[in-house]
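Reviewers of the previous submission asked for a worked example of the structure-prediction workflow described in the proposal, so we include one complete record here. The input consisted solely of the amino acid sequence. No template or homolog information was supplied to the procedure at any stage.
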Amino acid sequence: QVLLVESGGGVVQPGGSLRLSCAASGNIFVINTMGWYRQAPGQQRELVARKPARGPTRYADSVKGRFTISRDSAENTVVLHMNDLKPEDSAVYYCNLDQVLDPFGTWSHYWGQGTQVTVSS
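From that input alone, the workflow returned the following structure tokens.
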């Protein structure tokens, strides 16, 4: 089993910044991609940013230039730095691990429990 612990959500004014963090622990041999998704009320879950172990980082067009994703593969952590936040960024943000290989040779994917981000004046 793999446990994801998210932190860093909260309430911020427009133009403010937040940092989301996700730490993974458990039966992990390697993680291919770590990323963040978000879901606003009444809307589908959407990609915010994802960072594979190899290959280009991908951002949603709506966050390019404002959000930065980083990962520490040795510590199995992924961080989302969010700047110049806008009301439309308000959503529940979910950490995602894709193509996780455990020591027994099984591939899986995992979601965090979600953390609320609210941008409001």
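The CA atoms of residues 48 and 62 lie 8 Å apart. We consider this example representative of the routine output the project will generate in years two and three.
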